[in-house]
Amino acid sequence: MVVREIINVQAGNQVGEAFWQAVLAEHGLDLSGTYQGTNPSQLHNIGVYFSEVNSASATKYVPRSLQLDLEAGVCNAVRSGPMGALFSPDSYIHAQSGAGNNWAKGFYTEGAELIEAIMDALRKESEKCDVLQGFQMIHSIGGGTGSGLGCLLLTKMREVEYPDRMLATFSILPSPKVSETVVEPYNAMLSAHQLVDNGDLTICVDNEALYGIAGRSLKIQTPSFRDLNALIARVMCGVSTSLRFPGQLNGYVFRPKPDPADTFPSDLRKLGMNLIPFPRLHFLMPSYAPFVSGEAARYQGNSVPDLVQALFDRRNLLVDVDPRYGRYLTAATIFRGNIASREAEVAVRDLQTRNSTSFVEWIPDNVSVTLVSVPPVGQKQAATCLANSTSIQELFQRTHDTFAAMYKRRAFLHWYTEEGMDVMEFSEAESNSADLIAEYQQYQEARATSDDGDEEYEYEGGEAASEAYSH
Ligand SMILES: Nc1nc2c(ncn2[C@@H]2O[C@H](COP(=O)(O)OP(=O)(O)OP(=O)(O)O)[C@@H](O)[C@H]2O)c(=O)[nH]1
Ligand SMILES: [Mg+2]
């Protein structure tokens, strides 16, 4: 079976641990990577995230994953925890001293000392792949390591080693209410600057939204990171479902065929192709439904229209923005469980018709529907959505505002310049994010036919159209 592999890189190891735990369960693997399941579809595309190691006694599935950190603590905890036997020993790469919440240490100093070792390990991992589709990175962008080292790695991958592979990130953004250090907006802004230019797909998650979901839907009053990470893992599994299991996309059946030339029908590139109309605007907001579990689940409507409604409800979003203030450029919905494709498509179409002004009309059929019959562990049905909405500018605006207030007074800058950073880079990051916000705003306001003489979308405007297409 030819699969197109994804290599995971985590500089956010607690989130990564939750992700692997969920993926193991979905594929019938135990914590040491040994298959215990009974459903053959669990192994069809196991090669996307795992390499198979055969020994005389057993077959072990080893995650295609690197665990990175600039200090040893979290890596050691993973290594000595319940998943200690899962990852290969040389897939942990860490330093000792930490980045102390300083992006410059992650990108320029401490991180730079580790980058060659990481690139070597990545090369080894990619040599094990037949057709590497790309990478996914799990990191937070508020601290020093996931943020600075994560971005350094992204830059090296893009510019030096893997320019034609897809680079997807699950990026945890800082939230004003859940902020741990004052310099988070600096780190986040410097990271966003790199993500805009070097990433292909950035799936945004913010802890503030996660706290809201934990309290509201799960009734956990003081959620721990473990609780929040379990939510992120559910969404990560949802997003990657169609890369891991056979299913249908927009009514077309896709399933792995024995023909070795046939690659699995959905991959990161196709996801990007459908979701990203403009290369810089690749910041996606994920949502999931239903979040409720246990007793409460029995009282909640779970029809397909209910699921669709929930996916486009801000309470089910993993970022704290209000999508009603923006417009959807594109979205991908992924349904899991025993759901008829027609039913899902009709429900999505209905929601779009009822809220037509919320979806840009100049990208027809901008919401895709994928169906996979395998439900998540512990749920009968569930749905995930990745939306490219102009309302994501709210997140950037928020970070931009706190960044600008401190930067104007040059507060805390010495920590960064002491690591050899040029202040210019702060200004560049600031203006890059201001540009990005303006771009989102421009497409939010764009209409199929605007009245400012810009008529390239209109058929009747023969002259204008030919002018617009003449380049
Ligand atoms: N959801 C979630 N967020 C986390 C977790 N750990 C840290 N964060 C958040 O991520 C941000 C940065 O956390 P750090 O742990 O300092 O990040 P780091 O990448 O290790 O960087 P340094 O420790 O500064 O080297 C903070 O806003 C935290 O709230 C986690 O396990 N889950
Ligand atoms: Mg850390």
Automatic annotation (TrEMBL):
Q: Name one GO biological process term.
A: microtubule-based process
Q: Which GO terms describe its cellular component?
A: microtubule
The protein's name is Tubulin beta chain
Q: What range(s) does the Tubulin/FtsZ GTPase domain occupy? A: 46-247
Q: Tell me where the transmembrane regions lie.
A: none
Keyword GTP-binding set for record: yes
* PROSITE patterns attached to this UniProt entry: TUBULIN
- Where in or outside the cell? Cytoplasm, Cytoskeleton
Q: Please tell me where this protein is predominantly located.
A: cytoplasm
Q: Which residues form the Tubulin/FtsZ 2-layer sandwich domain?
A: 264-401
Q: How does it assemble?
A: Dimer of alpha and beta chains. A typical microtubule is a hollow water-filled tube with an outer diameter of 25 nm and an inner diameter of 15 nM. Alpha-beta heterodimers associate head-to-tail to form protofilaments running lengthwise along the microtubule wall with the beta-tubulin subunit facing the microtubule plus end conferring a structural polarity. Microtubules usually have 13 protofilaments but different protofilament numbers can be found in some organisms and specialized cells.
